[in-house]
Amino acid sequence: MKKELIIGIVLGLVLAVGGFFLFNNSNLFKTYEDSGESTGFQESTREDIIEEDDSRPISRVSWRYDGNEWSSQGNPPTCPDPLVLKSPVDVSLATSILYPGQIRGGAFNPHGGFRFDNSKKEDVIVRAPLDGYISEGSRYLQDGEVQYLFDFINPCGIWYRFDHLYKLSPKLAAIAETFPEPIEGDSKTTGVQDAEVVEGEIIGEQVGVEGNVFLDFGVYDLRQKNDASKDPSWNPGYSVSQDSYGVCWLDLLSSGDSAIVKQLPGGDSINGKQSDYC
Questions:
Q1: Are 227 and 246 in contact (CB under 8 A)?
Q2: Stretch 188-198: mean pLDDT, rounded?
């Protein structure tokens, strides 16, 4: 009887230890699966999926022109009110202002710009005045020199454009390398995907052409057409998608910068400060 009792106790201990091992072993497999440690039975875990999602481009509201008006593809965020743009250049270097919304060179120009008659190309640094995604750009030749144009759109509906950039930031230079080879006078744009800039980010490190240091700068409010376009007699006859949405960006700069640029002479020798927007 004593021997049988000992055997029973031993068997009980074996079963108890075996059950304990199996229970904890199953928990160990569950722990591996939950933690993402390699078990040889799975390729990814919830943490992996989250990391992959975080690496994807940030979603954004896009804007499209249907031939009559601009509209957002999605629900745009609200623009800052009042809207104040960081000056894209050091306005103390500017010697005159090209006013947006005027005829220059025989054509209506919805964009304006800055002239820097006392500066060299490399003196002018161009920065993003507002967060935005890059919608399109181009590289072309003017008088044999490469020029760059880029369009940026803030999801709230503010579009701004730079033209006559001569040397780009490394990020934009890499994008420009994907554009067609430059052709004299051909500034046809190419769409850009999944590239963004933040306010204050350097866009360009040199501007203009040899002996003519300047930068074109245009701002367009895609949320509504401008007052000039509401006049039945107003018909600039060029790009309605731009002309009817162009704004007087001199009014959108900080109060200090706005006062400085408005005191400068008009850069166009014929129209001066005459503007359909300002």
A1: no
A2: 94
The set of residues, in sequence order, having a beta carbon less than 8 Å from that of 122 and lying 6+ positions away, is 167, 205, 206
The token pair at 246 is 């162009």
Q: For residues 194 and 134, what is the distance between their CA atoms, to the nearest angstrom? A: 8
| Domain containing residue 41 | 2-54
Regarding whether 185 and 110 lie in a shared domain, the answer is yes
Give the tens place of pLDDT for each residue, 88-147.
Answer: 999 999 999 999 999 998 889 999 999 999 999 999 999 999 999 999 999 999 999 999
The SS3 assignment for 96 reads strand
Residue type, 163: D
Residues 8, 115 within the same domain: no
Token pair for 66? 């249907």
- For residue 92, tell me if it sits in a domain: yes
Q: Which one, of 128, 135, 127, 129, lies nearest residue 60 by Cα?
A: 135
Distance CA 34, CA 203 (A): 44
User: The tokens 């199996």 sit on which residue?
Assistant: 22
Please tell me whether residues 113 and 237 are part of one structural domain: yes
pLDDT of residue 36: 31
pTM confidence score: 0.77
Alpha-carbon distance of 104 to 116, in angstroms, equals 18
The answer on 173 and 87 residing in a single domain is yes
Residues 5-26, mean pLDDT to the nearest whole number: 42
Same domain, 249 and 117: yes
How many CB atoms are closer than 10 A to CB 87?
21
**Burial category of 196 from C-beta neighbours within 10 Å (exposed 0-12, middle 13-18, buried 19 and up):** middle
State the chain's mean pLDDT as an integer.
Answer: 82
The verdict on 42 and 134 lying in the same domain is: no
Residue 236, pLDDT score: 78
β-partners of residue 200 are none
Same structural domain, 133 and 223: yes
